[in-house]
Design brief:
Elements (H helix, E strand, L loop, with lengths): L3 E5 L3 H13 L3 E6 L2 H10 L1 E7 L4 E6 L2 E4 L3 H10 L2 E4 L6 H8 L10 E5 L6 H11 L7 E8 L3 E3 L6 E4 L4 E4 L13 E4 L2 H25 L5 H5 L2 H20 L9 H19 L9 H5 L2 H4 L7 H9 L5 H10 L8 H13 L1 H7 L8 H16 L1
Parallel strand pairs: 1-2, 1-6, 2-5, 3-10, 6-7, 7-8, 11-12
Antiparallel strand pairs: 3-4, 8-11, 9-10
């Protein structure tokens, strides 16, 4: 199994990004999946299609994979002992569980295990690394590699096939990788992953959130519908303008050597988001999916509050982000536990409790005051 990659999580990113790249480069995906029904369906299918849409339209066929469940400890241990590297796409909240399973493969493995951590979660690589250290394993046994996942992937109804974007790169931290780096088309190693992750968080993720939370107040079902509303699109452009400026002003913090090139890449990245990605109807990306888990997405290091803190630090206008945070505090979905909890906090303690306790704003800060104003504005409109 020298040419295999073990992938924890056979969901959208695990199958539609990691396995897609791995299989296209002649390596064998080995999935470890917690959901027994999903594992069964994937085994029975014997293969699936990744439909690339947007700038690049193409179908990729993924076959020849193996699927293991969490109960198959011996199989997981064997797979980990021989794999080229491992990847996770399980959600940051599940990384500690992954650590206990990864430990199964260390005893038989002769080389350090590189773990590509593909989670949309702050410091996910550190969470997993600490969990492994807590289990008694030393740093020589493994390396948890930070990544920046650019591709959006969605499942299809009644099928294991997936719909995704073509042409989006998966970035990985070259400095953390132990030993020889694999040559996989679509996987790019960078010595400045912090800058790439910040770019994704404060443009792609923040823009997505803006369309979802403002679109929710306009009764939109799909993300592309929100983009078609002029006032929402105008705010999105304003958010991108200040985000680009902040990411350029902090070039020293992010160790950007060629500022002119960085600015040009930022412009192209943002243009692609508006021109190709958010408006992609093939993805059928829903407001509900993007808006869910609002407490996490309002976190102090996350896409909205994190950007607001950065703008405050750079003395740049923050209203485009504050508007989105004000709208986000109105998001309610009975099926979303975080949404329900958000409503309970506001009912009990007021919106200021969210801004202080979740976003990490201080009452005297400009962002705090702006968010309150926008929250009250949207309250009066409902």
């Amino acid at each position: 199994m020298k040419g295999s990659v073990v992938i924890f999580g056979a969901g959208a990113i695990g199958r539609g990004l990691i396995a897609d790249l791995v299989a296209a480069n002649g390596l064998r995906p080995v999935f470890v999946e917690a959901n027994a029904q999903s594992a069964h369906d994937l085994k029975q299918a014997h293969g699936y299609v990744v439909h690339l849409t947007g700038k690049i339209r193409k179908d990729h066929y993924v076959t020849g994979y193996e699927v293991l469940t969490l109960e198959e400890g011996e199989g997981i241990s064997k797979a980990l002992s021989n794999c080229l590297f491992m990847a996770t796409a399980v959600g940051g909240q599940n990384l500690k569980t992954v650590a206990s399973l990864v430990a199964l493969g260390f005893q038989e493995r002769k080389k350090p295990l590189n773990i590509l951590v593909c989670e949309n979660w702050p410091h996910a690589e550190n969470v997993l690394a600490q969990a492994l250290l807590d289990l008694g394993y030393c740093k020589e046994h493994f390396a948890c590699i930070r990544s920046s996942v650019e591709r959006m992937v969605h499942r299809t109804k009644n099928s294991v096939d997936l719909v995704t974007e073509g042409g989006q790169t998966l970035y990985a931290d070259s400095r953390a990788w132990k030993g020889e780096q694999p040559c996989i088309e679509g996987l790019t190693f960078s010595d400045n992953i912090e800058a790439l992750y910040a770019r994704k968080l404060y443009t792609s993720n923040a823009g997505h959130a803006a369309l979802a939370y403002l679109g929710n107040l306009s009764d939109c079902t799909f993300i592309y519908e929100a983009l078609e509303i002029p006032r929402i699109k105008e705010n999105l452009r304003a958010l991108f303008t200040v985000a680009k400026e902040a990411l350029s002003l902090t070039n020293v913090e992010f160790s950007i050597e060629n500022l002119e090139l960085w600015r040009a890449e930022l412009e192209q990245h943002v243009d692609d988001l508006i021109t190709w990605r958010y408006c992609n109807r093939d993805l059928t990306d829903t407001v509900e999916r993007v808006a869910r888990n609002p407490l996490r997405k309002l976190g102090t290091e996350e896409r909205l509050a994190g950007l607001a803190h950065l703008l405050e630090r750079c003395a740049l206008p923050s209203k485009p982000v504050s508007r989105v945070i004000g709208a986000a505090m109105h998001y309610r979905d009975p099926g979303d536990l975080e949404s329900v909890k958000l409503g309970q906090i506001i009912t009990r303690e007021g919106p200021g409790a969210v801004l202080e306790g979740v976003c990490g704003f201080r009452r005297r800060e400009r962002c705090y005051k702006e968010c309150i104003e926008f929250y009250e504005y949207y309250s009066s409109e409902r």
